[in-house]
């Protein structure tokens, strides 16, 4: 039932306070970017949840496919040497 | 006292009119936007009325002739374009007025300094919508032009001095306010491919009427609805 | 939506190529889905999921969203008559929240490819339901309090477990909603308390409202377990965490002492504490009334849907105007150059998005330190 007058969907990212990244808050409909920002302000920050907002057309997001999750993410799982806990340091050695 | 009532009643009455949109807005996003504006205005009204007395006594127990709001803000919602034009006319005025009050040394400076941020957003909301409605479809253009025309004659009242507000320290010069308002509104209206009406900004006897307690017929019904429950239980607390 | 279709297409295409491999892949997918649910992890939009799971979720999220939107009406009925400015501000904020909650839930449903317009069309055509409770009228100011205390109370009892629902976007929407709704119930209770302790007329108004809203609130938990058609599967899928009767009993246990503190009576002479069971017993619910309201014969079914439809139809020219303006003023597509206002670093990390991409980008916008 979608027609040309249906407003597109936008993804909303909100920075909750200075020093933190923008995180995904949800989505909303708006006819254009300016209105999307305003709608996001009204909907997602009406309880002082944010100091900064990004809106991005949902169609602009390219997402990884769950079918590829093994090849995308599993190869990272067997490389424990990337984590500091992999290494044994004698007791008493400091600042390392 | 008179000035607090004038500013407070403007905010109270416009908030009430916007509250009438709840459940009727053209799209869910506007339900939230209109309610935000109504809540800002109600908050301003409560502070202002409290300066003049008890907020609920003033809101609920005054007769129609004792209200000091502009006739513009009491006008019924009409369609969405009509409401948006009312918002444009009023919020540009309120924004400019509060900017000036905030910069002055008058009694309302602290309150205006806080409210001016809210009002800037109301103005932006109205301007954004006037652009979209004016330069949208043929129908939206026609409806918005009709709103501009119908409400024009209520705009002159905004530039009548208000007793207790327009003193030398207030920062408010009504003629300067009118010129600045006209420039700002003209710019938005023209960008929206609409025309600002050229007729008189107030009817023959109506200039400043709302501020004197002379209102239009729909206002009586509006406050009848607003006050009936409170008045039905004299002395009760809620 | 695009990717959902793509996933399904992939399945079908594979089927024609290599039936054996497909059967294996299908089994793997089911196993992965079952394992995720069993491990109490969340299913996310682009994961494979059984068609029936998807359909159940869309139906439930849509019904939930519709309930928020229709639920604005009975309370908005009193905004213009609220008896104090404080109460008026509270009520406006609450009705506004309901619009917002509807939007969160429609967004959650959109992650499964059901667009909001499509769902609204179904609501307007009477093909999807909303909670029957909103087909009762708000006759007095006290009804606003009763809705907050009882209706929102029942809703919260239902919704808190949904924060752990197996479907990620639904669970996240519910976390947000529950957080915001915590004031809804309290304001209702406080409103009733003021009436109950007020004048005789106010007290009577409050009691009358509780009398009228109590039984419909109990019905909000749905039919008894032995008559509930969807419950068992939803529990297995962890969309639902507790049975209808279990939640209903929990609600009664919560309400009894609250009513006492209010100084109001619950209109059920059979309510009594059962020491042995460690819970309250209560009277039989008139399910024929529930069925009638469900069928469309409640006091306000017609009125609610007519108002919703009218708002939508009368708003059509506004939505069209904004869309027409956006089309006229759309920035010229220039795939090589980023839009001027785009943020320096891309916000759209793959994991953040629930909405897969199909078309090319329009411009993004950002705002720093707004209002």
From TrEMBL, chain A:
Record's keyword terms, sorted: Oxidoreductase
Gene3D superfamilies (alphabetical): Phenylacetic acid degradation B
Pfam family, one: PaaB
Ranges in coiled-coil conformation: none
InterPro entries named among the record's database cross-references: PaaB, PaaB_sf
GO molecular function: phenylacetyl-CoA 1,2-epoxidase activity
Residue spans crossing the bilayer: none
Entry keyword Amino-acid biosynthesis: no
Record-listed E.C. numbers: 1.14.13.149
NCBIfam families: PA_CoA_Oxy2
Record's protein name: 1,2-phenylacetyl-CoA epoxidase subunit B
Gene responsible for this protein: paaB
UniProtKB/TrEMBL annotation, chain B:
Domain of life of the native organism: Bacteria
Pfam families (UniProt xref): PaaA_PaaC
Coiled coil: none
PANTHER family: 1,2-PHENYLACETYL-COA EPOXIDASE, SUBUNIT C, PHENYLACETIC ACID DEGRADATION PROTEIN PAA
Name of the protein described by the UniProt record: Phenylacetate-CoA oxygenase subunit PaaC
Source organism of this protein record: Streptomyces californicus
UniProtKB/TrEMBL annotation, chain C:
EC number(s) reported in the record: 1.14.13.149
Keyword Oxidoreductase annotated: yes
Pfam families: PaaA_PaaC (PF05138)
First-level EC class: oxidoreductase
Pro residues compositional bias, start-end: 332-341
UniProt-annotated stretches for the region Disordered: 324-371
Keywords assigned by UniProt, alphabetized: Oxidoreductase
MF (Gene Ontology): phenylacetyl-CoA 1,2-epoxidase activity
Biased composition (Low complexity): 342-358
Database matches in InterPro entries: Aromatic_CoA_ox/epox, Ferritin-like, Ferritin-like_SF, PaaA, PaaA_PaaC
PANTHER family attached to this UniProt entry: 1,2-PHENYLACETYL-COA EPOXIDASE, SUBUNIT A, PHENYLACETIC ACID DEGRADATION PROTEIN PAA
NCBIfam families: PA_CoA_Oxy1 (TIGR02156)
Full protein name: 1,2-phenylacetyl-CoA epoxidase subunit A
Higher taxonomy: Bacteria, Bacillati, Actinomycetota, Actinomycetes, Kitasatosporales
Gene: paaA
